[in-house]
Specification:
Elements (H helix, E strand, L loop, with lengths): L38 H18 L11 H24 L4 H30 L2 H15 L3 H9 L15 H25 L5 H30 L1 H6 L5 H12 L9 H21 L12 H13 L15 H5 L2 H28 L4 H10 L1 H17 L1 H4 L2 H30 L38 H5 L9 E2 L10 E3 L6 E6 L1 H4 L2 H10 L3 E7 L10 E2 L4 E2 L1 H16 L5 E5 L8 H18 L3 E4 L9 H7 L9 E2 H4 L4 H7 L6 E4 L2 H4 L6 E2 L2 E2 L2 E2 L9 H17 L21 E7 L14 E3 L20 E2 L6 E3 L5 E3 L2 E2 L5 E3 L1 E4 L11 E9 L11 E9 L14 E6 L6 E7 L14 E2 L3 E2 L8 E8 L6 E6 L2 E7 L5 H8 L3 E9 L2 H5 L14 E11 L4
Parallel strand pairs: 1-4, 3-4, 3-7, 7-8, 8-10, 16-20
Antiparallel strand pairs: 2-4, 5-6, 9-11, 12-13, 14-32, 15-21, 17-18, 18-32, 19-20, 21-31, 22-28, 22-32, 23-24, 23-31, 24-25, 25-26, 25-27, 28-29, 29-30
Helix pairs in contact: 1-2, 1-13, 2-6, 2-7, 2-9, 2-11, 3-4, 3-13, 3-15, 3-17, 4-17, 5-6, 6-7, 7-9, 9-11, 10-11, 13-14, 13-15, 20-27
Length: 1004
């Protein structure tokens, strides 16, 4: 397991410029009478930055060189706080505009040069997908928010597998800027309260110290907590680092200069401090929980070095002959210290971009590259940092310094946006893949896709595209639980009321099979239960979590809970397990760990199938393919490294675990016996990162996996998914209607199945504006209702030049869809809502619904004849809802005209991908109700008991016809708070992938 601690870890910001002097360097202490330059601190900066450079270069013995960040934060807190307090004591106030102007002109231009260089170099040295990520890093770094961007990436298990950013080191610069954006104004407020005190200097220092102490304690406590719960958050987030600035501030605030201290004691203090820093740089490594308690050693060590050279009462400020200060004040350490900021800015991009171009390098090469980074570092210091720092023109007025800083922020942001936009255009769309248009997978044979004869698949781009692959996750919502979660929710999909279910159990390598398992369960009328946890081995192994940065205790709790739940629940029809096969290299330990898990699973008595772990590329496959779109074979990876021996599969094959079967799709994922495995097969991009299959790959592998499961006897065989209407289907279901919306792009839907509703009302206008107040005119034009040529229907609202709205509304010719006596009717569709939100979506009202067949006899009798709104959404909200209308026009058992509604159901990606909406009319004796489903989960029910028998019978016990439409305006959008206006944007379609109707007869 890799360490979550970032590999770019320090922030050698140059020392502050005195508030009222052009002198270089920093201020020494808290006394308003002492402002001598501290050459030893300049040398201390050299020690810190050299430790970090050696760590990044991989120099043996300096695995803890990242402690340089602690040293720099302490130094920064000491110098900046001392400067501000000294200004307050001398002048009675803190000029914040001057302070931020000085920081802006000293820090931001050099950073902008590096950011601009990285943005341009990235366009040349990196592949497109990684380049798009890099340009986002440039923007975050320029805006001093890089630490939060990297926190989000490193705490997200699903973002694992991406390569290091050349700007990862900007996290610490962001932390420092965020700290001073709060600290300096806080000091200014404190000074306002203490400025009139008789002994102003003492009052200011005391007041600031009183503010600093609780901040230090609170931040340190938070650091300890986050180190135990989320190492990346503890390491990169500003709140957990405040205490280190605070330690430096307290050294500057306390009146050490008034104390008489024995020189030997100060000598010992200095050497102890530098020894603590050196010891931590050597003794710590990536496995050290950090920052936590471990950060105390370098932090207090840095404070001790600073404290040792603060002269006491009556002493001179020159370092003693044997003190560490004399060594640090030497010419060479000070020269490195002066260069430390720009050297820090340049060295990490040089290392990362060189490795991106030429591959991983050994430490001597990395050390040479780090040394070479001194050239642009010196040039930046010589021709950017120092001229702006010394310029009287720039420093004369604070607004000029701020203008320089703002320019230094804007220029790299603009450059990154230009390069990033060009890259995104090159990559193509990142929208979800239309699964309905995928070619069929082969159930057997050497090829991934089914073929006619020996003909290879047609040429074309890979599917999913590299940008799509990054986000091509299983559509299981929050059911693949995150590292900090200890219990899975009740994740049931498919026919959730069925007594039969498949259980999918394991880590994310089990979760990747979700779509395949759901398809198999749905074919049989079964439910699918998912119990999956990220990074958690199903065998009972003790592991560390990279996201949490410590022992993965949550995994042990989750695993025990999942096994206990399965023991207590009814026996499933099948348990499917899978897990990453490389949590340990000890095969004996792994076999023992598997036995501990399999024993309680086998005791359940259900068939168990182990899906062998799929190949692990170990590299960011989508990024590689983005750089070789015409030659994806260049992204093949080592077979030996990708497929490790599987002791569990061997034990199952040997018959050592009765009741457990093993299947593998690896012969098709890594065919033949050559040295490499492909990243792309038959134009299907197989991996979404460095370890997991894309959901597209899983979908096309479904026929093969189903055959393996049925051949093993673990799963009963059923008819194909595309059975003709009227054929008996899984678990007694009979499909009576199916529409796949196949046909040429731009053509209308099948006239054999669908009618167009046109105008603004039904014939004879029994209810103007369709009875809802909507403002569009429905047409039969293919501008409004058309097939997309990829297996989906589009209903598109449009607006004419004079501002009139047009849209589409279709309904099935058939109106006889009804539940059999004592049975169940199920109506289902896969729909992607119009991808528009905000003011542009005001008035949008997409819907999938039914009306009772009696309505067609003169179009009267609503709501008594029943209306089932399977899916509605308004105004581009990230929510959908369902409603039943029945009874009388006002009030009644269905509370008309509002109806019996589910209320908004959250669905954050309903606008960007297809989701399954269904309704079941259940007339089973004793269980009569209507149920609504979103992606297989029941989210709304209306029982017959909520109304009198006559109302229930009139509403549901007859034929229904189906309706698909997108309205504009009307009562419902208005009730939600929006109406169509000039900003409402036409042209965003509701897409429908399929519509099916099935029935199931009464079960005796």
């Amino acid at each position: 397991m890799h360490s979550p601690v970032p590999s770019s870890l320090t922030s050698p910001v140059p020392p502050p410029e005195p508030a009222s002097s052009a002198r270089s360097g920093g201020e020494s202490g808290p006394s308003p009478h002492r402002s001598a330059f501290r050459p030893d601190i300049e040398g201390l900066r050299a020690v810190a930055v050299l430790a970090v450079l050696a760590f990044h270069a991989g120099v043996p013995g300096l695995a803890g060189g990242f402690v340089g960040v602690d040293v720099f934060f302490v130094v920064s807190g000491y110098l900046i706080t001392g400067l501000l307090v000294r200004e307050a004591v001398t002048t009675g106030r803190i000029r914040l505009l001057d302070f931020f102007s000085r920081r802006a002109r000293r820090l931001l231009p050099s950073a902008a040069v590096v950011l601009g260089a990285v943005a341009l170099a990235g366009a040349w040295l990196t592949v497109p997908l990684r380049r798009a990520d890099l340009e986002q890093d440039v923007v975050a770094s320029a805006l001093s928010a890089a630490n939060w961007r990297f926190v989000a990436q490193r705490t997200d298990y699903l973002a694992a597998g991406h390569e290091q950013s050349p700007l990862l080191h900007f996290w610490s610069l962001a932390v420092e800027e965020q700290f001073y954006l709060l600290w300096a104004p806080l000091l200014a407020l404190i000074v306002l309260g203490a400025a009139r005190a008789v002994r102003r200097g003492r009052a200011v220092r005391a007041a600031v110290a009183l503010a600093a102490v609780p901040l230090v304690l609170a931040s340190f406590a938070l650091s300890l907590r986050w180190t135990d719960h989320s190492a990346s958050l503890a390491y990169l987030a500003t709140p957990s680092r405040v205490w280190q600035f605070g330690v430096g501030a307290l050294v500057a605030l306390l009146p050490w200069h008034l104390m008489r201290g024995p020189r030997p004691l100060r000598l010992l203090c200095g050497w102890a401090g530098i020894t603590a820093i050196a010891w931590s740089a050597v003794a710590y490594d990536a496995a050290t929980p950090y920052p936590g308690h471990a950060a105390l050693v370098p932090t207090l060590g840095a404070a001790a070095v600073i404290l040792a050279a603060i002269p006491g009462r009556g002493e001179r400020s020159t370092p003693g002959g044997y003190g560490i200060g004399r060594l640090l004040a030497g010419r060479a350490p000070r020269a490195v210290g002066r260069l430390s900021y720009t050297l820090y800015l340049w060295h990490w991009p040089v290392l990362v971009l060189a490795e991106a171009r030429f591959g991983p390098q050994d430490w001597p090469v990395k050390a040479a590259l780090t040394l070479a980074a001194a050239l642009p570092a010196y040039a930046t210091m010589r021709w950017v940092e120092q001229p702006l720092r010394r310029s009287r023109t720039v420093s004369e007025f604070p607004r000029r310094g701020l203008s320089v800083g703002i320019t230094a922020v804007v220029l790299p942001v603009v450059l990154a946006l230009v390069v990033g936009t060009t890259t995104l255009n090159l990559l193509g769309p990142a929208t979800p893949v239309q699964l309905g248009g995928l070619p069929p997978g082969a159930a057997s044979g050497p090829h991934l896709l089914a073929r006619t004869g020996s003909a290879p698949p047609a040429a074309g781009p890979v599917v999913p595209g590299p940008a799509q692959a990054r986000k091509d996750f299983p559509p299981d919502g929050a059911c693949e639980v995150a590292p900090a979660v200890t219990r899975s929710p009740d994740c049931l999909f498919g026919a959730v009321d069925s007594p039969d279910r498949i259980v999918l159990l394991g880590d994310s390598h089990a979760g990747q099979w979700f779509s395949a398992m759901l398809a198999m369960a749905a074919q049989r009328g079964w439910a699918l239960q998912e119990l999956v946890k990220q990074g958690c081995p199903l065998p009972q192994l003790a592991v560390d979590s990279p996201q949490l940065g410590r022992a993965y205790r949550e995994c042990d709790t989750w695993r025990a809970d999942a096994l206990e739940r399965l023991r207590q629940q009814p026996k499933p029809r099948l348990i499917v397990i899978s897990s990453l096969n490389r949590y340990t290299a000890d095969s004996g330990l792994l076999a023992e760990a598997w036995e501990k898990t399999l024993a309680p699973l086998r005791a359940i008595g259900a068939p168990i199938v182990y899906i062998e772990d799929t190949p692990v590329p170990g590299a960011d496959v989508p990024a590689c393919v983005s750089g070789s779109p015409e030659e994806p074979a260049a992204c093949a990876f080592s077979r030996t490294n990708a497929q490790q021996p599987d002791p569990l599969a061997r034990r199952i094959a040997a018959g050592a675990l009765p009741g457990v079967r093993a299947v593998s799709v690896n012969p098709v994922l890594c065919p033949g016996d050559g040295p490499t495995c492909p990243a792309v097969l038959d134009r299907i991009l197989l991996y979404r990162d460095d370890a997991h299959l894309t959901n597209v790959a899983v979908v096309v592998l479904t026929p093969r996996l189903e055959r393996l499961l049925t051949d093993s006897g673990a799963l009963p065989a059923v008819g194909g998914a595309g059975a003709a209407s009227g054929a008996a289907g899984p678990a007694g279901w009979t499909e009576v209607f199916r529409e796949e919306f196949d046909g040429p792009a731009g053509s209308p839907p099948s006239s054999a199945n669908w009618l167009h509703d046109t105008g603004t009302c039904y014939p004879g206008c029994p209810a103007a504006q369709w009875g809802t107040g909507e403002i569009e005119t429905m047409t039969d034009s293919t501008d409004n209702v058309r097939l997309d040529g990829k297996g989906a229907l589009e209903i598109v609202p449009t607006r004419t030049a004079d501002g009139a709205w047009r849209s589409g509304r279709i309904e099935t010719r058939r109106s006889d869809f009804a539940a059999p006596a004592g049975g169940i009717l199920r109506i289902e569709a896969a729909i992607a809502l119009p991808d528009v939100t905000g003011a542009e979506a005001a008035g949008y009202w997409p819907a999938f619904w039914t009306l009772g067949a009696p309505l067609r006899d003169g179009y009267t009798g609503w709501p008594g004849i029943g209306e089932l709104d399977i899916m509605e959404s308004v105004n581009g909200r990230d929510s959908v809802f369902a409603t039943m209308h029945c009874g009388t026009l006002e009030g009644g058992p269905c509370r008309e005209p509002a109806g019996l509604s589910s209320g908004p159901q959250p669905c954050g990606d309903c606008r960007t991908g297809f989701h399954t909406y269904a309704v079941e009319v259940d007339l089973s004796p004793g269980a009569e109700e209507v149920r609504w489903y979103l992606d297989g989960r029941v989210h709304h029910r209306v029982a017959a008991s909520r109304m009198d028998p006559d109302t229930w019978k009139r509403a549901v016990d007859h034929g229904l016809f189906l309706i698909l439409n997108v309205a504009i305006g009307g009562g419902l959008p208005l009730a939600d708070g929006a109406t169509p206006g000039p900003a409402t944007e036409p042209g965003h379609p509701m897409r429908v992938d399929r519509v099916t109707v099935s029935t199931r007869a009464r079960v005796a």
